Amino acid sequence: MKVTQMLFQGRQVQALLCAACFALLLTSCKKNESEATAGTEITTDDAADMIQTAVNPETLGITAQMRTTTVYSNARNFQCSIESDTTATGQGTVGAATYSYYFNWARLYKCDLQTLVISYNGNTSYDVPLLLSGTDTSFATFTVTGLKDTSYKMDATYERFGTHTSHLRNKNTFNGHTTITAKALPVSKITGEIESGTAAVTFTGAGTGGTKVNLTGTLTFTGNKKGVLVLGGNYTRNLSW
């Protein structure tokens, strides 16, 4: 009788231990699942980070491309209605940021309109320790007028898309597509910097977990290498480069 009772009690202990192990395993699975999905969302901050890389020169954003456009415009080595092409490759550092690039540039001077059309497409890889790392494809068209004025006027259509990993907050990984368009931005012929004006900005992106973001806004250039980004009417970020 005692032996039977001991066996029964032993089986009870085994059952309790199994239940405890199962509960622990379930908790661990939930924790691992939570950890696996962490960082798969995309937030407005993430979107603003990518837009910032599409603007800043250290990530070869639109400000860097407009400087290059200014150099080509200043050269004045173009002929009417004859397109010229240039391929540029390289790598470098700006502070702690590193980058590499491959660009194809095309230039076409329209004599009758006194207009220079400069376009490019290419690929960029970069790592900015306090922002993002990523690989992008980008293309743009800059229509330059005011060739005889003190400043150029540039119409710009700029697009950039790729995969990015944040170095901030939850360190999210996400895909994003940024478009920046503007009319008649005044650009210094000396520095290639945008002096003022406002550009329209759109962003679409998705986190690796499927979270999607679609945002529209504006980027106002305030001069002195600064700007104000507004998204969705209520998100604001001050930019400087």
Structure description:
- A 10-stranded antiparallel β-sheet has the order 1-2-3-4-5-6-7-8-9-10, with helices on one face.
- With 241 residues, it is α+β, with helices and mostly antiparallel strands.
- The radius of gyration is 27 Å and the shape is globular.
- The longest helix has 36 residues, at 2-37.
- It folds into 2 domains: 1-37; 40-240, no CATH class.
- The chain contains 3 helices and 10 strands.
- The model is unreliable at 1-39 (pLDDT under 50).
- This is Lipoprotein.
- It comes from Deminuibacter soli.
Integer tally of domains: 2
**Beta-strand content bin:** over 45%
Helix content: 25-40%
Shape: globular
**Which class do the helix and strand fractions yield?**
alpha+beta
Provide the spatial order of strands within the biggest beta sheet. Answer: 1-2-3-4-5-6-7-8-9-10
Radius of gyration: 27 Å
Protein name: Lipoprotein
